[in-house]
Amino acid sequence: MQPIGWRGYVPVALRQYFDPAPLAALFLGVSSGAPFALIAATLTTRLAQNGIDKRAVAAFSIALLVYNLKWAWAWIVDGVRLPLLGRLGQRVSWLLFAGMLAIATIVNLGLVDPTASLAATATAAILVAVAGATFDIVIDAYRIESLTPEQLGVGSGMSQYGWRIGSVAAGGLALFVAARFGWAAAYIACAAYALPAMVVGLVCGEPPRRDEAAARTRQGKLQTIVGPLLEFLQRDGALLVLAFVLLHKIGDTLANLTFRLLFNELKFSNDEIALYDVGFGFWAYLAGILIGGILYARLSMQRAVMLSLWLMAVSNLSFAALAIAGKSDWGMAGAIGFENLASGFGGVAVVAFLSALCDIRYTAAQYALLSAAGSVIGRVLTGATAGALIEALGYPGFYVLTTLVALPGIALFWWLMRTGLPEPRR
Asked: CA torsion angle for 113, 119, 124, 130 (degrees, to 10)?
């Protein structure tokens, strides 16, 4: 029988990417990526261009630590019903509520003036982080519960596509608008990127597996809070997995949050940053996701994750080379291309791995815990020491260091491969 509808014109190998749940994951990812980008690279550029000292700029990355604390209130998204909006369903109502919070806080960040008050700017950035982290909690839960276990790899890839589209589009739009109309207008325009996830919730409704999860979690509030962690810790190998999650992204996070400082030091313009970091990097990232999806299907989960860890570690050396070479269009394109290719591949493998570990009863809380733990150490080190390390070691030495600190995570995952990983949950 011939395929019916427009999907019939899609190549068979790609058809699974166009099923409703993976497509929804794409749009959810768009809304997830935008708030993070606006308080990471975009805010770094804004502060640097306003003449803020690099140590103070690096310290602003501490605002991103809010994302690492989202596990503390993720249980609320799982267990607390919102008044009025709650009639639309647990996940849909929280998508709408968190989306509105994201819009309001992004607009607020655009209206503050860093040159007038760094404290007010830091407070506004933290508010965006709280709203963005809450948005992420429900977005991740909605994505995992909408996908069947067989779709986790495809869905993770589509989510990463969306995240990159959202972060790049928000970052690119912010640079473009800021260069012409100022930073306030830039942030107000970028607040609209919260809308795709909200529309997904209204159009698609509650995830099919949410009713199943609700039926299995009719319990007291205390169990709702502690249950996700206790269930995870009772599994074989749980502590080793948590240790790996804490360690595996230290080098990658430490490096990524300082790229814009390097670009500013090398005197790249906003338009050059938009062309290479935002534009070329975007396509390299998409290529990495496509390659990652293909290799993830052909390799075992363990081998795919291990390969991605090595690629992400070694890619930091390309920025050491750029720092040595000085301002170079080809050097910037090569460094950004390699880093984004590695990150795209790693996103597919690691996100699918973490998603597979979540019990359907505690999707929001467990994924929040695992994803938040992944970059907490790197963000603490960036905010506390990155500026001082760059001044002490120079940019080349700093990026060599970020490669070296990634090695313990790789070694631990090798040990996990030898001893056996926890089985995926249902």
From this structure: 160
